[in-house]
Design brief:
By secondary structure, this protein is of the alpha+beta class. Among the domains are: 21-55; 57-87, no CATH class. The protein is built from 3 helices and 5 strands; from the N terminus they run H-H-E-E-E-H-E-E. It has helices at 2-12, 24-46, 87-90; strands at 58-62, 70-75, 78-83, 98-102, 108-112. The strands form 2 sheets. The protein has a 3-stranded antiparallel beta sheet with strand order 1-2-3, with no helix packed on it. Strands 4-5 form a two-stranded antiparallel sheet. Strand 1 and strand 2 (70-75) form a beta hairpin. The longest helix has 23 residues, at 24-46. The chain is rod-shaped and about 95 Å long. It comes from Pollutimonas bauzanensis. Keywords: Membrane, Transmembrane, Transmembrane helix. This is DUF2149 domain-containing protein. The chain crosses the membrane at residues 22-44.
Length: 121
């Protein structure tokens, strides 16, 4: 019986795939997949965030020197983000405790401020 159907289809003008009215949707789905993949690759390369996809530790600075600067770091698998001007990060108080100097040999010397000096207050 299947032989009769195949002979009948062949005599009517082709195989059964040509008769499917929704066959174009398969090709449309393939095109959409290729477009989505190309869009994801373009976004990752444009945002320079390919480092997020690797297992290496990194530090990335977005908008350096501006008021909306962000520093994104990953150390040991933990990703942390620091936003310049962030109220939570800026609420910490500190004081100056000294000065560090780098010599021509690459050595770093730390000189603590004396308790009575104006810089220590």
């Amino acid at each position: 019986m299947s032989r009769r159907r195949s002979v009948l289809r062949a005599s009517l003008g082709g195989n059964g795939d040509d008769m499917d009215p929704l066959g174009f949707l398969i090709n449309l789905f393939d095109v959409a997949l290729v477009f989505a993949l190309a869009l994801m690759i373009a976004l990752v390369s444009n945002l320079k965030m390919a480092d997020l996809l690797t297992s290496k530790d990194f530090t990335m600075v977005k908008n350096p020197g501006k008021s909306d600067m962000e520093i994104i770091t990953r150390e040991g698998g933990k990703v942390s983000r620091y936003v310049a001007g962030d109220a939570k990060a800026g609420s910490r108080q500190g004081q100056r405790v000294g000065t560090a100097y780098r010599l021509q040999s690459g050595e770093i010397i730390y000189v603590p401020d004396s308790p009575g000096s104006p810089a220590a207050q």
